[in-house]
């Protein structure tokens, strides 16, 4: 069910308010996507398969050291394969060129920022 025009305007106003009032929060959270690193996934899978082969070979020929080495290689391959890729960070929303809210607010304490936000909200109503 699509939103009515009034609901769309209200949603856009809420977004603008969030970007304006909590710019440091938006900048810290932002939109973060992880881009998979296919090279490390392929390398990890190959190492895991080689480790499984070495583990089975070590068990088959009764060589404990080969089984342990195979397990370590397999475990390392799995760790390499599941390591997250590089993050792509982008912060959507309007930006005001003359104002640096993250820098200005970093000098204030937590309670000071809360009080300032409270005062701004009370002035707006």
What's the layout of helices and strands?
Elements: H1 5-21, H2 23-29, E1 31-35, H3 38-60, H4 64-82, E2 86-90, H5 101-106, H6 110-124
Antiparallel strand pairs: 1-2
Structure commentary:
The chain has helices at 5-21, 23-29, 38-60, 64-82, 101-106, 110-124, and strands at 31-35, 86-90. With 125 residues, it is mostly helical. The protein has a two-stranded antiparallel sheet with strand order 1-2. α3 (38-60) packs antiparallel against α4. The protein starts with a helix and ends with a helix.
Characterize the biggest β-sheet. 2 strands, antiparallel
Strand order of the largest sheet: 1-2
Principal-axis shape: elongated
Give the number of DSSP strands: 2
Count of helical regions: 6
Order of helices and strands: HHEHHEHH
Key phrases:
125 residues, mainly alpha, elongated
Outline of the structure:
Helix content is 70%, strand content 8%.
């Amino acid at each position: 069910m699509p939103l009515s025009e009034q609901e769309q305007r209200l949603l856009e106003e809420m977004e603008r308010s969030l970007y304006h009032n909590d710019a440091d929060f938006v900048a810290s959270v932002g939109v973060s996507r992880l881009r998979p690193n296919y090279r490390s996934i392929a390398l990890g899978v190959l190492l895991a398969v080689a480790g499984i082969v070495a583990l089975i070979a070590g068990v088959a020929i009764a060589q404990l050291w080969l089984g342990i080495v195979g397990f370590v290689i397999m475990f390392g391959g799995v760790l390499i394969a599941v390591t997250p890729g590089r993050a792509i960070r982008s912060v959507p929303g309007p930006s005001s060129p003359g104002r640096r809210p993250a820098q200005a607010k970093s000098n204030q304490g937590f309670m000071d920022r809360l009080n300032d936000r409270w005062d701004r909200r009370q002035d707006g109503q």
